[in-house]
Write a structure and sequence with these properties.
- This protein is of the alpha/beta class and 327 residues long.
- The chain has 16 helices and 12 strands.
- It has helices at residues 17-20, 34-51, 62-72, 87-95, 118-123, 130-134, 159-170, 185-197, 211-215, 228-234, 259-264, 266-272, 279-292, 296-306, 308-311, 317-326; strands at 2-3, 26-30, 55-59, 77-82, 99-104, 111-117, 141-142, 145-152, 177-180, 203-208, 218-220, 253-258.
- The strands form 3 sheets. Strands 6, 7, 8, 9, 10 and 11 form a 6-stranded mixed sheet that branches. It has a 3-stranded mixed sheet with strand order 1-3-2, covered by helices on one side. Strands 4-12-5 form a 3-stranded antiparallel sheet, with helices on both faces.
- β8, α7 and β9 form a beta-alpha-beta unit.
- α13 (279-292) packs across α14 (296-306).
- The longest helix is centred in the first third of the chain and has 18 residues, at 34-51.
- The chain is globular and about 70 Å long.
Protein backbone atom coordinates (compact mmCIF):
# COMPACT_ATOMS: atom_id res chain seq x y z
CA UNK A 1 0.00 0.00 0.00
CA UNK A 2 1.34 3.43 -0.92
CA UNK A 3 1.06 6.21 1.62
CA UNK A 4 0.21 9.69 0.34
CA UNK A 5 2.37 12.46 1.76
CA UNK A 6 0.77 15.72 2.84
CA UNK A 7 0.90 18.75 0.58
CA UNK A 8 3.57 20.29 2.78
CA UNK A 9 5.88 17.40 2.06
CA UNK A 10 4.67 16.40 -1.39
CA UNK A 11 7.41 15.04 -3.61
CA UNK A 12 8.09 15.31 -7.35
CA UNK A 13 5.62 13.45 -9.53
CA UNK A 14 8.42 12.73 -12.01
CA UNK A 15 12.03 12.18 -11.13
CA UNK A 16 14.73 14.62 -12.15
CA UNK A 17 16.94 11.83 -13.47
CA UNK A 18 20.05 14.01 -13.70
CA UNK A 19 19.81 15.28 -10.14
CA UNK A 20 18.54 12.01 -8.65
CA UNK A 21 20.77 9.73 -10.67
CA UNK A 22 17.84 7.55 -11.73
CA UNK A 23 14.36 7.91 -13.18
CA UNK A 24 13.13 4.89 -11.25
CA UNK A 25 10.75 5.35 -8.34
CA UNK A 26 12.44 4.93 -4.97
CA UNK A 27 10.04 3.04 -2.71
CA UNK A 28 11.03 3.52 0.93
CA UNK A 29 9.63 1.16 3.56
CA UNK A 30 7.90 2.93 6.42
CA UNK A 31 8.02 0.38 9.21
CA UNK A 32 5.50 0.18 12.03
CA UNK A 33 7.71 1.37 14.91
CA UNK A 34 8.42 5.07 15.62
CA UNK A 35 12.15 5.29 14.88
CA UNK A 36 11.93 3.51 11.52
CA UNK A 37 8.84 5.50 10.50
CA UNK A 38 10.53 8.82 11.30
CA UNK A 39 13.67 7.82 9.39
CA UNK A 40 11.60 6.85 6.35
CA UNK A 41 10.01 10.32 6.25
CA UNK A 42 13.37 12.05 6.79
CA UNK A 43 14.94 10.26 3.83
CA UNK A 44 11.87 10.63 1.62
CA UNK A 45 11.88 14.42 2.14
CA UNK A 46 15.61 14.77 1.49
CA UNK A 47 15.59 12.60 -1.65
CA UNK A 48 12.41 14.20 -2.99
CA UNK A 49 13.18 17.83 -2.25
CA UNK A 50 16.97 17.76 -2.31
CA UNK A 51 17.59 15.43 -5.23
CA UNK A 52 14.33 15.60 -7.20
CA UNK A 53 13.73 11.86 -6.91
CA UNK A 54 10.35 10.23 -7.38
CA UNK A 55 9.85 8.83 -3.88
CA UNK A 56 7.03 6.75 -2.43
CA UNK A 57 6.56 5.63 1.15
CA UNK A 58 5.16 2.12 1.46
CA UNK A 59 4.01 0.39 4.61
CA UNK A 60 6.35 -2.30 5.82
CA UNK A 61 7.51 -4.60 8.55
CA UNK A 62 10.64 -6.67 8.97
CA UNK A 63 9.58 -10.01 7.48
CA UNK A 64 7.22 -8.89 4.66
CA UNK A 65 9.53 -6.06 3.59
CA UNK A 66 12.63 -8.24 3.43
CA UNK A 67 10.71 -11.03 1.68
CA UNK A 68 9.47 -8.58 -0.96
CA UNK A 69 12.98 -7.19 -1.46
CA UNK A 70 14.37 -10.67 -1.92
CA UNK A 71 11.68 -11.82 -4.33
CA UNK A 72 10.72 -8.65 -6.25
CA UNK A 73 13.44 -6.07 -5.64
CA UNK A 74 10.88 -3.80 -3.96
CA UNK A 75 10.78 -1.70 -1.88
CA UNK A 76 14.05 -0.13 -2.90
CA UNK A 77 15.19 0.75 0.63
CA UNK A 78 14.37 -0.12 4.23
CA UNK A 79 15.98 2.62 6.37
CA UNK A 80 15.91 0.62 9.63
CA UNK A 81 15.87 -3.11 8.99
CA UNK A 82 16.49 -5.31 12.04
CA UNK A 83 18.15 -8.38 10.54
CA UNK A 84 18.29 -10.59 13.65
CA UNK A 85 14.82 -11.95 12.85
CA UNK A 86 15.69 -12.65 9.19
CA UNK A 87 19.35 -13.57 9.58
CA UNK A 88 19.50 -16.64 7.30
CA UNK A 89 17.36 -15.47 4.35
CA UNK A 90 19.01 -12.03 4.40
CA UNK A 91 22.53 -13.52 4.37
CA UNK A 92 21.49 -15.81 1.50
CA UNK A 93 20.04 -12.82 -0.38
CA UNK A 94 23.32 -10.92 -0.06
CA UNK A 95 25.24 -13.97 -1.26
CA UNK A 96 22.94 -14.32 -4.26
CA UNK A 97 23.21 -10.62 -5.11
CA UNK A 98 19.55 -9.82 -4.47
CA UNK A 99 19.97 -7.34 -1.61
CA UNK A 100 22.72 -5.19 -0.11
CA UNK A 101 23.55 -3.48 3.15
CA UNK A 102 24.22 0.21 2.48
CA UNK A 103 25.06 1.23 6.07
CA UNK A 104 24.37 0.63 9.73
CA UNK A 105 21.17 2.54 10.46
CA UNK A 106 22.00 2.51 14.18
CA UNK A 107 25.77 2.84 14.32
CA UNK A 108 26.20 1.60 17.89
CA UNK A 109 23.53 -1.09 17.69
CA UNK A 110 20.18 -1.47 19.37
CA UNK A 111 20.07 -1.77 23.15
CA UNK A 112 18.04 -3.90 25.56
CA UNK A 113 18.47 -4.41 29.25
CA UNK A 114 17.55 -3.54 32.81
CA UNK A 115 17.76 0.11 33.76
CA UNK A 116 17.70 2.32 36.85
CA UNK A 117 17.47 6.13 36.99
CA UNK A 118 20.79 7.97 37.00
CA UNK A 119 19.78 9.80 40.18
CA UNK A 120 19.57 6.40 41.91
CA UNK A 121 22.90 5.28 40.42
CA UNK A 122 24.50 8.54 41.61
CA UNK A 123 23.10 8.07 45.12
CA UNK A 124 24.27 4.44 45.22
CA UNK A 125 27.51 4.24 43.19
CA UNK A 126 27.93 0.58 44.14
CA UNK A 127 24.94 -0.35 41.96
CA UNK A 128 26.59 -1.02 38.62
CA UNK A 129 25.33 -4.45 37.63
CA UNK A 130 22.10 -6.41 37.78
CA UNK A 131 23.74 -8.63 40.40
CA UNK A 132 24.42 -5.55 42.55
CA UNK A 133 20.81 -4.38 42.35
CA UNK A 134 19.36 -7.84 43.03
CA UNK A 135 21.03 -7.75 46.47
CA UNK A 136 19.06 -4.62 47.42
CA UNK A 137 15.32 -5.11 46.92
CA UNK A 138 14.72 -2.58 49.70
CA UNK A 139 15.94 0.20 47.41
CA UNK A 140 13.25 -0.57 44.82
CA UNK A 141 10.17 -1.41 46.92
CA UNK A 142 7.04 -2.74 45.29
CA UNK A 143 4.32 -0.09 45.91
CA UNK A 144 1.79 -2.88 46.51
CA UNK A 145 4.13 -5.07 48.60
CA UNK A 146 6.94 -2.95 50.11
CA UNK A 147 8.51 -6.00 51.75
CA UNK A 148 9.78 -6.97 48.30
CA UNK A 149 11.46 -5.19 45.41
CA UNK A 150 9.75 -4.75 42.05
CA UNK A 151 11.16 -5.36 38.57
CA UNK A 152 9.00 -3.88 35.81
CA UNK A 153 8.98 -6.49 33.06
CA UNK A 154 8.40 -6.40 29.33
CA UNK A 155 4.80 -6.14 28.04
CA UNK A 156 3.03 -9.52 27.83
CA UNK A 157 3.28 -11.41 24.57
CA UNK A 158 6.59 -9.87 23.54
CA UNK A 159 9.74 -12.03 23.24
CA UNK A 160 11.41 -9.89 25.89
CA UNK A 161 8.79 -11.04 28.40
CA UNK A 162 10.27 -14.54 28.15
CA UNK A 163 13.89 -13.36 28.42
CA UNK A 164 13.17 -11.06 31.37
CA UNK A 165 11.26 -13.80 33.20
CA UNK A 166 14.15 -16.20 32.60
CA UNK A 167 16.67 -13.70 33.97
CA UNK A 168 14.44 -13.14 37.00
CA UNK A 169 14.81 -16.87 37.70
CA UNK A 170 18.51 -16.98 36.81
CA UNK A 171 19.24 -14.23 39.36
CA UNK A 172 17.19 -16.16 41.95
CA UNK A 173 14.99 -13.13 42.64
CA UNK A 174 11.83 -14.99 43.60
CA UNK A 175 10.97 -14.49 47.25
CA UNK A 176 12.61 -11.08 47.58
CA UNK A 177 11.36 -9.48 44.37
CA UNK A 178 8.12 -9.31 42.42
CA UNK A 179 8.18 -9.49 38.63
CA UNK A 180 5.56 -6.96 37.60
CA UNK A 181 3.82 -7.17 34.23
CA UNK A 182 2.81 -3.67 33.06
CA UNK A 183 0.04 -4.97 30.81
CA UNK A 184 1.10 -2.93 27.77
CA UNK A 185 3.91 -0.82 26.37
CA UNK A 186 1.95 2.33 27.20
CA UNK A 187 1.47 1.24 30.80
CA UNK A 188 5.19 0.52 31.14
CA UNK A 189 6.02 3.96 29.74
CA UNK A 190 3.60 5.59 32.17
CA UNK A 191 5.16 3.81 35.15
CA UNK A 192 8.65 4.86 34.11
CA UNK A 193 7.61 8.47 33.47
CA UNK A 194 5.85 8.69 36.83
CA UNK A 195 8.91 7.40 38.71
CA UNK A 196 11.30 9.79 36.97
CA UNK A 197 9.06 12.81 37.44
CA UNK A 198 8.75 12.04 41.14
CA UNK A 199 12.44 11.10 41.51
CA UNK A 200 11.42 7.68 42.79
CA UNK A 201 13.43 4.45 42.49
CA UNK A 202 12.50 2.06 39.69
CA UNK A 203 14.11 -1.04 38.16
CA UNK A 204 12.76 -1.70 34.68
CA UNK A 205 13.32 -3.53 31.42
CA UNK A 206 13.57 -1.32 28.35
CA UNK A 207 15.02 -1.06 24.87
CA UNK A 208 16.30 1.54 22.45
CA UNK A 209 16.28 3.64 20.44
CA UNK A 210 13.10 4.97 22.05
CA UNK A 211 11.64 8.25 23.28
CA UNK A 212 11.79 7.01 26.88
CA UNK A 213 15.57 6.58 26.79
CA UNK A 214 15.88 9.88 24.96
CA UNK A 215 13.78 11.75 27.52
CA UNK A 216 14.96 10.21 30.79
CA UNK A 217 18.52 9.74 32.01
CA UNK A 218 18.63 6.01 32.72
CA UNK A 219 21.63 3.78 33.41
CA UNK A 220 21.81 0.30 31.87
CA UNK A 221 22.93 -2.32 34.37
CA UNK A 222 25.85 -4.59 33.52
CA UNK A 223 25.17 -8.26 32.90
CA UNK A 224 27.46 -11.12 31.81
CA UNK A 225 28.41 -10.82 28.11
CA UNK A 226 25.65 -11.75 25.68
CA UNK A 227 25.62 -15.48 25.03
CA UNK A 228 23.49 -16.36 22.00
CA UNK A 229 22.91 -19.96 23.11
CA UNK A 230 21.86 -18.99 26.62
CA UNK A 231 19.65 -16.20 25.27
CA UNK A 232 18.04 -18.57 22.75
CA UNK A 233 17.21 -20.97 25.58
CA UNK A 234 15.92 -18.14 27.78
CA UNK A 235 13.46 -17.13 25.05
CA UNK A 236 12.35 -20.70 24.25
CA UNK A 237 9.64 -22.01 26.60
CA UNK A 238 10.49 -25.57 25.53
CA UNK A 239 14.20 -25.35 26.38
CA UNK A 240 15.11 -27.98 28.97
CA UNK A 241 18.12 -26.12 30.35
CA UNK A 242 17.70 -23.88 33.40
CA UNK A 243 17.64 -20.12 32.71
CA UNK A 244 21.08 -18.53 32.48
CA UNK A 245 22.56 -15.10 33.11
CA UNK A 246 23.31 -13.25 29.88
CA UNK A 247 23.02 -9.74 28.55
CA UNK A 248 20.48 -9.07 25.83
CA UNK A 249 22.27 -9.32 22.47
CA UNK A 250 22.32 -6.16 20.39
CA UNK A 251 20.33 -6.57 17.17
CA UNK A 252 21.88 -5.21 13.96
CA UNK A 253 19.75 -2.46 12.44
CA UNK A 254 20.86 -1.66 8.89
CA UNK A 255 19.91 0.33 5.84
CA UNK A 256 18.88 -2.57 3.63
CA UNK A 257 18.28 -2.19 -0.09
CA UNK A 258 17.43 -4.12 -3.21
CA UNK A 259 20.64 -4.84 -5.12
CA UNK A 260 19.54 -2.76 -8.11
CA UNK A 261 19.81 0.44 -6.06
CA UNK A 262 23.59 0.20 -5.86
CA UNK A 263 23.88 -0.52 -9.59
CA UNK A 264 21.14 1.63 -11.12
CA UNK A 265 20.89 4.45 -8.55
CA UNK A 266 24.46 5.04 -7.31
CA UNK A 267 23.63 8.54 -6.00
CA UNK A 268 20.91 7.06 -3.82
CA UNK A 269 23.22 4.31 -2.59
CA UNK A 270 25.92 6.85 -1.80
CA UNK A 271 23.45 8.99 0.13
CA UNK A 272 22.26 6.08 2.27
CA UNK A 273 25.83 5.01 2.98
CA UNK A 274 26.20 8.18 5.14
CA UNK A 275 22.97 8.27 7.11
CA UNK A 276 23.83 6.20 10.19
CA UNK A 277 22.80 7.64 13.57
CA UNK A 278 23.60 6.61 17.12
CA UNK A 279 21.09 5.15 19.53
CA UNK A 280 21.05 8.41 21.49
CA UNK A 281 20.53 10.51 18.35
CA UNK A 282 17.52 8.47 17.26
CA UNK A 283 16.06 8.45 20.76
CA UNK A 284 16.38 12.25 20.80
CA UNK A 285 14.47 12.46 17.49
CA UNK A 286 11.64 10.47 19.04
CA UNK A 287 11.36 12.71 22.12
CA UNK A 288 9.82 15.46 19.96
CA UNK A 289 7.19 13.09 18.60
CA UNK A 290 6.38 11.78 22.07
CA UNK A 291 6.11 15.17 23.77
CA UNK A 292 4.12 16.78 20.96
CA UNK A 293 1.97 13.78 19.99
CA UNK A 294 3.43 14.25 16.52
CA UNK A 295 3.23 11.68 13.75
CA UNK A 296 6.27 10.35 11.88
CA UNK A 297 6.13 13.06 9.22
CA UNK A 298 6.00 15.93 11.72
CA UNK A 299 8.79 14.31 13.73
CA UNK A 300 10.89 14.10 10.57
CA UNK A 301 10.27 17.74 9.67
CA UNK A 302 11.29 18.83 13.17
CA UNK A 303 14.55 16.88 12.82
CA UNK A 304 15.28 18.50 9.46
CA UNK A 305 14.59 21.97 10.87
CA UNK A 306 16.60 21.56 14.08
CA UNK A 307 19.45 19.19 13.17
CA UNK A 308 20.83 20.67 9.97
CA UNK A 309 24.38 20.08 11.18
CA UNK A 310 23.63 16.34 11.21
CA UNK A 311 21.73 15.72 7.96
CA UNK A 312 23.66 18.26 5.88
CA UNK A 313 26.68 15.95 6.11
CA UNK A 314 24.73 13.31 4.21
CA UNK A 315 24.09 15.46 1.14
CA UNK A 316 25.71 17.75 -1.40
CA UNK A 317 25.65 21.52 -0.71
CA UNK A 318 23.19 21.93 -3.60
CA UNK A 319 20.83 19.32 -2.16
CA UNK A 320 21.11 20.85 1.33
CA UNK A 321 20.09 24.26 -0.06
CA UNK A 322 17.05 22.74 -1.79
CA UNK A 323 15.97 20.93 1.37
CA UNK A 324 16.31 24.12 3.44
CA UNK A 325 14.28 26.04 0.88
CA UNK A 326 11.55 23.39 0.92
CA UNK A 327 11.36 23.52 4.72
Amino acid sequence: MTLALSAAASLPAHADAKSCGTDRTIDIAEMTWPSAAALAHIHAFILGKGYGCDVKLVTGDTVPTSSSMLSRGQPAVAPELWTSAIEKPWAKGIEEGKVVKLADAITDGTVEGWFIPKYIADAHPDLKSAADVVKHPELFPDPEDPSKGRLYSCPPGWACELSTSALFKAYDMDGKWNLFSPGSGGALDASIARAFLRKQPILFYYWGPTAILGKYDAVKLDMPPADKEVYACNTNPDCANPPGKTDYPSSPAIVGAAAWVKKDAPKIADYFSKVGLTNNQISAILVYGDENKADAEATAINFLKTEEDVWSKWVTPEAAAKVKAAL
